[in-house]
Amino acid sequence: MSETNRKPCILVTGGAGFIGSHTVCELLNAGYDVVIADNFFNAKPEALDAIREITHKDFVFMEGDVADHEFMEKIFSAHKIDAVIHFAGYKAVGESVAKPLMYYRNNLDTTLTLLETMKKYGCHHLVFSSSATVYAESESMPLYESNPLGTSNPYGETKRMIERILGDTAHADKDASFVCLRYFNPVGAHPSGLLGEDPNGIPNNLMPFIVKVATGKIEKLRVFGNDYDTVDGTGMRDYIHVVDLAKAHLAALEYAFKRTGIDYINIGTGNGTSVLQIVEAFKKVNHVDVPYEITERRPGDLAKVWADTSYAKRVLGFTAEKNIEDMCRDAYNYGVKHMK
Fold first, then answer.
1. CATH number (domain holding residue 107)
2. Do 257 and 177 touch, CB atoms closer than 8 A?
3. pTM for this predicted structure
4. What phi and psi values does residue 302 have, to the nearest 5 degrees?
5. Of 30, 95, 230, 340, which one's alpha carbon is 20 to 30 angstroms from that of 140?
6. Residue 135 bears catalytic tag
């Protein structure tokens, strides 16, 4: 195949993880060549087989740490990488409060090593997995991209610092095209039941915790606080189906190929849903019980967070399509089949 007809090759760091694996499916179905880099810190090798089964397409997988210069050299020297979607990083708010040095070391090192290697090999396009945790606490919702930044935990601070690193890098490299997707709360699973969220150990995120309770793996759900200023006292978040989120990454990649500079884009549904509303929806859709107990607030958590999504619609043409019921149904379907 000639260079002009060659399909773009996308490196997906953390591509065996929850969001990464779903995004790889969208990339393969859209005709891209894909190289996945993952060290299985919070992912499982079975995800790779699931991607192949869902898409009936293959990809290159390379196991290693994105913070390792030799590993990244191995990838870029063997493949002509046209763009990167960067998921590799630790992601639990509570854990980051308990282990801040681990989060700063890993999340910054992976990004710096990746950017240095991209620069060496003339790769200028990057979509970054950022987070709504970069925003300062606000009494008014929704959150706009223009809202003040200000983090309440080390995880969010690593995302904010990486956004700054990317901004400075894009300013210095006029060919750079970076898109930071500030997404809110990804949940759900692939409708096939083959891919989903199955974290190692006790889940840090709400939906897999609910699934493990509903399937009898954990006795009851812990709800962190019921005295927030929300509809029922429990924290409200903007939950987005992981398949919608994966499609947003595809749209962001195509956007990055058409422009230069850096942009920051919220990815969510624009709606806030409380923890107990999620629990009730899950019980109703799946006809199962979800026992829970109210415990103390979790350090670093905010009362309510949801997105203004008008900018994503305008520049990416992206609007989330799936609802809370879809998220609960697909998460449970995956959990029944795969969660241990």
1. 3.40.50.720
2. yes
3. 0.94
4. -105, 160
5. 95
6. no
Residue 193 lies in a domain: no
Pairing of strands 125-131, 177-183: parallel
What does the pLDDT look like over 169-224, one tens digit per residue?
Answer: 999 999 999 999 999 999 999 999 999 987 766 777 899 999 999 999 999 999 99
Spatial distance between the Cα atoms of 210 and 110, rounded to a whole number of angstroms = 31
| Among 32, 103, 135, 155, the one annotated catalytic | 155
In a domain, 325, yes or no: no
Range of 175's domain?
8-187+239-269+307-320
Query: Nearest-CA neighbor of 142 among 294, 337, 305?
Result: 305
Within-domain flag for 38? yes
42: confidence class by pLDDT, cuts 50, 70, 90: confident
312: Cβ–Cβ under 8 A, 6 or more apart, which residues? 248, 265, 266, 267, 318, 319
CA atoms within 13 A on the CB side of 205: 20
Per the structure, the count of domains in the chain is 1
Query: Given 3-state DSSP classes, what are the helix, strand and coil percentages for the chain, each rounded to the nearest 5?
Result: 40, 20, 40
pLDDT tens, residue by residue, 130-162: 999 999 988 899 999 999 999 989 999 999 999
pLDDT in tens, 104-126: 999 999 999 999 999 999 999 99
